[in-house]
Every structure is written in C-alpha cells, then in structure tokens.
Amino acid sequence: MKQKKNFRLAILAIIGLTILTIVHYALAEQSGIERVELQRHDLGTPGKEVVQVRIDFDSGTAFGKHWHPGEEIIYVLEGSLEYQVAGKSTVTLKSGDVLFIPAGTIHAARNPGKGIAKELATYIVEKGKPLVNVKYK
C-alpha cells in the first residue's frame, strides 16, 4: 500500500516537472529570446563565480529593464543589439563589439535588426544570487 502511494507521488512529480518544462520553453519561444548557459565556475575570490551565457534575440525582440548582482561583459556574436544602460546614452553594437555593464546597473537590450542577433554574456557575480533581477533596488 505504501509503495503504491510513493509510486503515485513519483508519477505526479514527473508529470508536474514535465508540464513546468513545457511551459518554460513555450514562454521562452514566445518571447523570442533564448538563453543557453555555456559554463559556470567558482572564482578564486570567495563567494564569486563566473557564468557565460549565449543569448539569442529574434528580430525586434527586447529584454526589458533588469540588473545583475555583479559585472556583465557583453560580446556581440551576430547581428546588432541596442543597449540602454542607466545614466548613459543608448548605444547600438554590431558583431564584434563589446560592452561592460557595472554590477547592479539597470539596463535593457533590444534587437533592432531584421535578422537574429546573438551575444555572449559573461557575468562575474555573487554566488547563490539570482543571475537576472527584474525588481528594482
């Protein structure tokens, strides 16, 4: 009897995780932005880690205002991306361009082009904190 109950709970958990995964990917596709984590490593500085993410933007899509608990270094791989960084003029970067965003700085990104745009984002952040924060400080 107890084994049947545990088995049912396990099946329900698998179904629930499957539904959450499907919803997550559906929302990601709907937004037109795909984030792929490439690597994550602890740094020699206690409490810090480096995370590299490839971010693909469909034509005309935007990632609204947000901030990170550490520095972000952006390298545009393909296309062009427009960045709004708090306290600075809007800048449009093309393939091969770079941008440094200081820790905690509110910023947004948008693909103004007709094709896909891709960036490599390298984050040097506080370990254990959310990588992206959309709530303002």
UniProtKB/TrEMBL annotation:
Ranges for domain Cupin type-2: 55-120
Protein name per its UniProtKB record: Cupin domain-containing protein
Database matches in InterPro entries: Cupin_2, RmlC-like_jellyroll, RmlC_Cupin_sf
PANTHER family, per database record: CUPIN DOMAIN PROTEIN (AFU_ORTHOLOGUE AFUA_3G13620)
A Pfam family matched in the record: Cupin_2
Source species of the chain: Pedobacter frigiditerrae
